[in-house]
Amino acid sequence: MTRHVSWLCFFALVISAHTAADSRLRVKLAGDFTKLSSQDVFEERYKKSALQNLRSNVRYMYDRSKSRWSFEFHGVGHGVVSNTGYFAENSSSSRLFDPEPSGYWNLSKELVSGSRHFASVNIDRLRLTYRSEEWRVMIGRLPVSWGRGIVYQPLDVFNAYPPTAIDREFKPGNDSLVVERLFNNGSELQLLSTFRDSEHVHVASGSSSTHVFKGYFASGESEIDLILGRHWDETIVGMSVASPVSSILVRADVVFTCEDMESCTISAVVNADYSHGIMGGLLYTFAEYFYNGFGVTSKHKKTTNLPKRLLAGIQRGEIFAYGRHLIATGASVTWHPLWNQSLSLLVNANDGSFLVQTNITFVPTDNVNLTFGMLLPVGDTNEEFGAIELEDSLTTGGNSGLFFELSYYR
User: Fold this and answer.
1) What does the pLDDT look like over 33-88, one tens digit per residue?
2) What's the distance, CA 81 to chain centroid?
3) CB 95 within 8 Å of CB 165
4) 3-class SS at 232?
5) Cα torsion through 330, 397, 97, 326, rounded to 10
6) If residue 13 lies in a helix (H) or strand (E), which one and from where to where?
7) Any bridge partners for residue 55, and if so which?
8) 382 burial level (CB within 10 Å; 0-12, 13-18, 19+)
9) Spatial separation of the C-alpha atoms in residues 296 and 363, rounded to whole Å
């Protein structure tokens, strides 16, 4: 398989060399500084008071269309250098980069790995699309997004973004087949099948694929999505609604996850956002409530004591909260055409812990962005945004940090 991936990358690059207009490039460099508490397991292991990571991310994009057909290829290279060798998934800079895709085929290759550095390449898009007036068919590695959550996404079971993710430009791809029927009134009917390597996603037995029907309907200014299908070994039934109320846009997602007809769990999210001018700029505000049906209402003493289904959702990248009731609110303001600032607050309504994150973006040119910011979690040990207690009175997580990101587009 590795040889096949290498040849595929080679041919894609050769073809794109002759059609530069169809090619694009995104280069990112990010760094983070995460302060460690004296009880943190990594302070104990590495004898460091802080984690410092420097990450690079290069995404090569090739798109080609002809008549009713189109082809898309994205190759991505990742690199990280750390002062400890611990490449934290929850470190400050990791929230700036899109995670690696998960699919049936292993289209990733480790280039180099050392005690304090790591580099790899992967194929994040490999899509062939056919379009007509009434049909659209897509096959290959492609992104899928469902639901209308802003911070939390209970209806999005396809590599959803973490609540604190800043870099949401390219959602990781899934190995899928999508067939869509388009109607003259704007409605759509979609059949989607996504396939995963069960060994790659740590599943001992059972199905790891997803097969779902989704219908999209518009009624006046409102939009409605209805979903029914099988996800892993469960049945999912969901609905997503978006409707304007005066100048405010209100959205809601509801999903039932059922092991059988007598054992169903409901999760839901509702949010509203509003934009208006302020001091010559634009102010965007939002508020969101998330009911995590798989979550707990008490402190989570060690992850091994949490419900199995909650842990499975966390490991699969579908759930990003331990608690049952979560609240999120935030704002983004354009102070100047070149300067934008965002501020968000995430709160666990059960234990009172919270996380504050803010970042400022400077756009000096059309193809250069600079983002820098900080995050500050506040909570006691074993609370949602506090540190998690491990063995020997050591902890992990719950640390504040600083981060930056420099992006170049060509």
Assistant:
1) 988 888 887 777 778 888 888 999 999 999 999 999 999 999 999 999 988 766 55
2) 23
3) yes
4) coil
5) -30
6) helix 2-17
7) 30, 80
8) buried
9) 42
Q: How far is CA 302 from CA 186, 272, 299, 326, 395, in A?
A: 49, 34, 9, 20, 10
The length of the chain, given as a count of residues: 410
From CA 162, how far away is CA 344, in angstroms rounded?
A: 13
Q: How far apart are CA 19 and CA 37, in angstroms?
A: 52
Rounded to whole angstroms, the Cα distance separating 313 from 292 reads: 11
DSSP states of 399-410: --EEEEEEEEE-
**In angstroms, how far is CA 133 from the centroid of its own chain?**
32
Task: Read off φ and ψ for residue 219, nearest 5 degrees.
Answer: -135, 105
Backbone angles phi, psi at 396, to 5 degrees: -145, 150
How far apart CA 379 and CA 381 sit, in angstroms, is 7
Q: 205: Cβ–Cβ under 8 A, 6 or more apart, which residues?
A: none
pTM confidence score: 0.87
d(CA 111, CA 99): 17
pLDDT reading at 1 higher than 60: no
Q: How many CA atoms, within 13 angstroms, populate the side-chain half-sphere of residue 50?
A: 12
Listed in sequence order, the residues at least 6 apart from 7 whose beta carbon sits closer than 8 Å to its beta carbon are none
In whole angstroms, how far apart are CA 242 and each of 13, 145, 170, 272? 41, 15, 23, 10
Give me the pLDDT at residue 21, please. Answer: 55
Residue in 333, 323, 332 with CA at minimum distance from that of residue 355: 323
Instruction: Give the start-end residues of each E strand in 87-163.
Output: 108-113, 117-131, 135-142
pLDDT tens digits, 98-113:
566 667 888 888 888 8
Structure tokens at 406: 């420099």
Q: Name the 3-class secondary structure at 315.
A: helix
Comparing C-alpha atoms, which of 275, 325, 276 is closest to residue 298? Answer: 325
C-alpha distances in angstroms, 78 versus 30, 89, 322? 11, 13, 29
Report how far apart the first and last C-alpha atoms of the chain are (Å, whole number): 31
What are the structure tokens assigned to 58, written together?
Answer: 């290069």
CB-based contacts of 408: which residues, under 8 Å, 6+ apart?
Answer: 26, 27, 28, 367, 368
| 3-state DSSP assignment of residue 90 | coil
For residues 273 and 257, what is the distance between their CA atoms, to the nearest angstrom?
A: 27
324 φ/ψ sector (left φ>0, alpha ψ -120 to 50, else beta): alpha
